[in-house]
Amino acid sequence: MSLNASIFKFSKLYSSRQFEFILGKVGVCCNRMADRDEYLENNENVLRNVLHKDYLNNNIVREELNLIPFIFTIESPEINNNYHESGRHDIRILNSSEYCSNTSLYYVIECKRLDGYASIKGSLNWKYIHEGLKRFVTRDDYPSIYGKSGMLGFIIKKLNISDLVGILNEILRTEHNNIPTSQYLTKSENIPATDNAYLSIHQDINKRDILLYHILVDLSSKVLNN
Q1: Is position 161 within any domain?
Q2: Where does the pLDDT of residue 141 fall: very low under 50, low under 70, confident under 90, or very high at 90 and above?
Q3: Which of 107, 104, 103, 208 is nearest to 151 (CA)?
Q4: Domain total for the chain?
Q5: Is the residue at 71 inside a domain?
Q6: Where are the alpha helices (DSSP H) in the chain?
Q7: pLDDT tens, 168-195?
Q8: Is 150 exposed, middle or buried (0-12, 13-18, 19+ CB in 10 A)?
Q9: Which of 105, 117, 137, 187 is most buried when burial is the number of CB atoms within 10 A of its CB?
Q10: Reduced to 3 states, what is the DSSP secondary structure of residue 113?
Q11: Residue 211 has what pLDDT?
Q12: Could you list the residue range(s) of the whole structural domain that residue 149 is in?
């Protein structure tokens, strides 16, 4: 019994460190997006596609950042027990060797834009919670056998990120207080190469803890029509 518990504890620690490593590299790629010479279209899918095509699926970048073992796919469907699509993953991340032995082993990142508007219903900040974070918790659209997933926030307006995090937490406390939350967005020091990494902890529909990492990237100087 104690041996099994030790293995489980090691497995959780391993998956956390692996995902934090991946998120750090995603943060590096986002920083490179922010440093591009050309402007980017103010479109959530386009921003995600730039990240995927030019960085996460670019063999030169993947080799440079030691991402060769990982496969990044976009718009991957989640198929429920009735054989319907229950959701689509913005970015699905597979460790090629692990996935070959267990096809349930993958991480999910949901991408959303963020702006300077507060908790107005329908605003981008509100949608980040309602159409992003909530899907990991109150429905089974984005299950994770690892118990951890990611949110990537593309900031399209110049703003104070600490204030933005406060707004997101306020939306969680008020507009979406039905989302079981044991830790609101709190600064995380475990993601290398980014100063704007946060962690929140929630309970899913099966009462299991879900760790959600939030990587906030400032693209305000690069996004058109903002």
Answers
A1: yes
A2: low
A3: 107
A4: 1
A5: yes
A6: 2-34, 44-51, 59-64, 96-101, 124-127, 134-137, 161-173
A7: 999 999 988 888 999 999 999 889 878 8
A8: buried
A9: 137
A10: strand
A11: 94
A12: 2-218
Inside any domain, residue 211:
yes
Instruction: Report yes or no on whether pTM surpasses 0.85.
Output: yes
Residue at 31: amino acid letter:
N
Tokens linked to 39: 């402007």
Distance CA 148, CA 156 (A): 26
Closest CA to 215 of 129, 152, 149: 152
Average pLDDT, the chain: 87
Four-CA torsion 96, 98, 103, 109, nearest 10 degrees: -70
Mean pLDDT confidence for 43-57: 97
CA-closest candidate to residue 48, choices 135, 94, 109, 95: 109
Contacts 24+ apart (CB under 8 A), 198-205: 198/165, 200/133, 200/172, 202/133, 202/136, 202/137, 203/137, 204/136, 204/137, 204/138, 204/140, 205/137, 205/138, 205/139, 205/140
What pLDDT, in 10s, does the model give residues 73-131?
A: 998 767 777 777 767 889 999 998 886 777 778 899 999 999 977 767 889 999 999 99
CA distance from start to end of the chain: 57
